Amino acid sequence: MGSFILYGPVTLRGKVEISGAKNAALPILASIPLIKGITVLHNVPRLEDVHTMIQILRSIGVKVEWKGENTLLIINEGSCTGDVPYELVRKMRASFNILGPLTLSVGKASVAQPGGCAIGLRPVNFHIDGLEKLGFSVSISHGTVHATAPGRVDESEVVVSFPKVSVGATEHIMTTAAGMKGLTLQINNAAQEPEIEDLQNFLNSCGARITGAGTSSLTVEGVEELQGCEYTIMYDRIEAGTYLIAAAATHGEVEVVNACSNHLGALLEVFEHMGVNFTCNENGITVKAGDVYRPVKIEVNPYPGFPTDLQPQILAMLSTVKGVSLVKENVFKSRFGHVPELNRMGALIVVEDSVAVVEGVEELTGAPVEATDLRAAASLLIAALMAKGETIISHIEHIFRGYEKVIEKFRGLGVNIVYEPRDVE
Ligand code: UD1
Fold first, then answer.
1. Which of the listed residues 7, 58, 196, 367 has the most CB atoms within 10 Å of its CB?
2. What is the pLDDT of residue 131?
């Protein structure tokens, strides 16, 4: 529970440094049951979701300690236990990715089945089908998924072809197979997100043999054992995209340090269409926003398409762009919890069949609004910066799941955010 109170409009100015990627850190941490000995991870963001994953690792017997601001020392002595407490799993869907690695390391394991969440139905059927293809027995009872690992794998070749692109299932199946000596796995229709390449690079540094991450076709040759290594996690492209949109939406001038233009191609293309000025160099991306923007049509798709995790933020920005913009969400079709709240601030957005039709208004006005999930919280924060007057965003705690030092970083760009740890009545 908590609220942000902001007075707008504010023009962002200055420099902001991007943190390590949450969506790279989580699957890397979920692979730890398979990785024996000492692992040192640098550039780990201190976020609620990362803390939850650390608690899960501790609960199964892995030693995890912070060493310095963003470095984790992890020791897996090879004596994990197989039950992950429901209370921890229910907080975060990405924790389900521990099932394969944990089952393989202890023989049998149980992880609670993740439920739906604010951005829609999020099943785990591709994960379960994939584990079964790898030879695991999987059953579900009382809301928990129980898995038993196959015994020794004779030389075998397995093909998993996902019916739909899934980031989590690609990572889960690829990681699990990495520890299965004798098995060669081919994944077709794999997700191509940069975080999957980061996971591949980490696992290969631990002795895995994975090729193809970053393309739709991956090959994993299982090995006997994975040994800990020292690794630096990539920067967070979604955090970077959020600050870039916030800068553009407030017609500001912001240098986003560590933003990687290669990973943000779809957003930068949208900026070009809209008339947002930006420059890229090896340190990051600087937005020097224009005065007037053009409306756009955006299709939200798996990488390298426009990311669903930036859809709520760009919708906030488009709400004051003169003309009609269209945003079609193809990843999480009902991810529009932020729309009624943006409309309460004066936006004119109608959603039909997963398409948001945005009719640009002259200005937004401050209002009390409620954040329904992590990226909706970021969207409302951007809207609050654009809006005239006071905005109180309740349930802002979602934002701490994905944005490290968010208050400090926005204050550094000239925003006066008041944080009330309890919701303002
Ligand atoms: C990951 C990201 C999340 C991002 C999402 C899409 C992490 C920790 N989270 O989530 O921030 O929004 O990718 O880019 O990296 N699906 C099924 N069955 C399954 C799995 C998925 O039907 O077993 C469907 C989902 O409902 C969704 C689509 O596939 O419609 C994509 O989901 P997926 O890529 O799996 O998302 P996550 O890995 O959960």
1. 196
2. 97
What domains can be seen in the chain, in order of their start residue?
3-18+235-420 (3.65.10.10), 22-223 (3.65.10.10)
Instruction: Supply the mean pLDDT for the chain.
Output: 95
Give the pLDDT confidence score for residue 335 in this predicted structure: 94
Q: Is the CB of 93 under 6 A from ligand 1?
A: yes
Catalytically annotated residues: 117
Q: Choose which residue among 166, 195, 328, 334 to substitute to test ligand 1 binding: the one with the highest number of ligand atoms within 8 A of its C-beta.
A: 166
The answer to whether 380 and 3 have CB atoms below 8 angstroms apart is no
Contacts 24+ apart (CB under 8 A), 133-142: 133/158, 133/159, 133/160, 133/173, 134/100, 134/158, 134/160, 134/173, 134/176, 134/177, 134/180, 134/183, 134/185, 136/100, 136/103, 140/113
Name the token pair of 425.
Answer: 């009545």
- Tens digits of residue pLDDT in 12-33: 999 999 999 999 999 999 999 9
Residues of the chain with pLDDT under 50: none
